[in-house]
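Protein 1 of 2
SEQ + STRUCT:
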Amino acid sequence: MEGIGKDFIEKTKYHHLSPSDQMRGLPPPPVELPYDLKEELIDLPEPDRVEISTITLREAIARRVSVRKYSCEPLNLDELSYLLWCTQGVKEVIQDYVTLRTVPSAGARHAFETYLLVNNVFGLQPGIYRYLATKHKLLSVKMETTMADKVTEACWGQEFVKTSATTFIWTAVVYRMKWRYGERGYRYLYLDAGHVCQNLYLAAESLGYGVCAIGAFSDDEMNRLLDIDGVEQFVIYIATLGNK
């Protein structure tokens, strides 16, 4: 039993770990990546404005399936705001280096940044946006008209990316997790991805929308599309969303 996966599990066991930067007394990284302050941000409605169905948690879990066929009805900003809050919403910032959010994360490190491929959201131009979780606002990243085609191609031609109302693209900012946990932090990044995407599935059920998680994509191509290095920050998970 030799292979990269086995090596990863073995070498991230505790007895292989060196002291983390937190243990060494180094300062923590910021809770959110910086952006050009000259850029105009897009306000999102308060997440509690959206009307959700009275579906119970039991019903949401029972109904949850992966949905790959979407209608042409657009998502609205109230709904998008609610879904972003459910998946990365910040409930509290503690001393500027810890955030408590709507999803669990190892050590409250919350190493993810959320990007959106917007195809059919009322009030937003198609393109790539970044969610600024601490401000609950959107930042335009790439407004090329061909972005849906490029992301679809990077997802190995899965056409439902192109027909989704929006596609969530989560990236991992590695040092945000490694600062506390060292190399073992890579394990926690993937665990956290599952937490986030399941919240999207269940929140979507309360709106009557469908979701499909995507793990099959070209890592290098997705990173290139977002202009990230693929080492210190990389795409970790993707999920489409649209009206059933």
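Protein 2 of 2
SEQ + STRUCT:
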Amino acid sequence: MQRAIRIADESEPSEARRVALGLADRLHFNDTRRGEAAIVVTEAARNVLLHGHGGEIVLTAWTNGDAGALDILALDKGPGMKDLSQCLRDGYSTTGTPGTGLGAISRIASLFEVQSFEQAGTALFARLQEKPTQFHAHFVTGAVCLPFPGEPECGDAWAARHRPGRSIFILADGLGHGAGAAEAATEALRIFEERSDETPHQILARIHDALRKTRGAAVAICEIDTIARSARFAGVGNIAAAIIADSRTRSMVSHNGIVGHSAVRFQEFSYPWPEKAILVMHSDGISSHWDLERYPGLQLKHPQLIAGVIYRDARRGRDDATVLIAREVQPA
């Protein structure tokens, strides 16, 4: 579950705190972790308001087996931090506050990362979990997937499945937005879950048949073979996808059409998958004019933080918006 809270005035950090506590309850956090979640989200929202002159908090509650976590993104387009290391020290403040916010967040969070540049805003990522989660996947993934403003349901949806040597990802964007779009995207993921062992081309064809009873969707599927060092991709509609490696961005090809209706051909393309590559997929609620080279060091950050920065700076604001980022886990 993912929620976004706009932070524009003094009342909204409290709203972010309320939403965070509701998600913490869903995750069955104990009282200590609930209190820590309230502190982290409140401090992050206050930083967005005071230092970023407003922005957004994106909260994600997710589970893995019997463990769960709350991910917090704090996004603003303010003046940024001149000296990040100094800002992390307790007692340092540029606004007359006690100066303990970032330091407190970094101590409480299980994972904590910040990206900030002068005049280019700040993005903060913090993860809270009660116990370590054992991941067996070969990829670490991050995503922002949010509905058109005012809609209770998101017409975009994504999923990933992993097995040794192979990971496969899907992003579906139901036509339009609202309940009808969500129905189409949900049906696409249902077929994906049932058929994830098949090739992208085969899965896409099966989704096309299943979506005939819906309004249709744009759908893209990427399968990565970490042994053969290759990626296979099939897409129809306006889902953008790219492989980023060695400071180069290679876009992957989707055909025009609407899955379930006017998709006239399904074609699978193969691409090299270099070591340390990053997969980027996004719906058309995100502009294609993003460039990670604008943010030195961002490619080394957690995929959730990368997704947050692209969402912050490239969302169009007139449709559901999804950014999916995946990076292969490198051997220790």
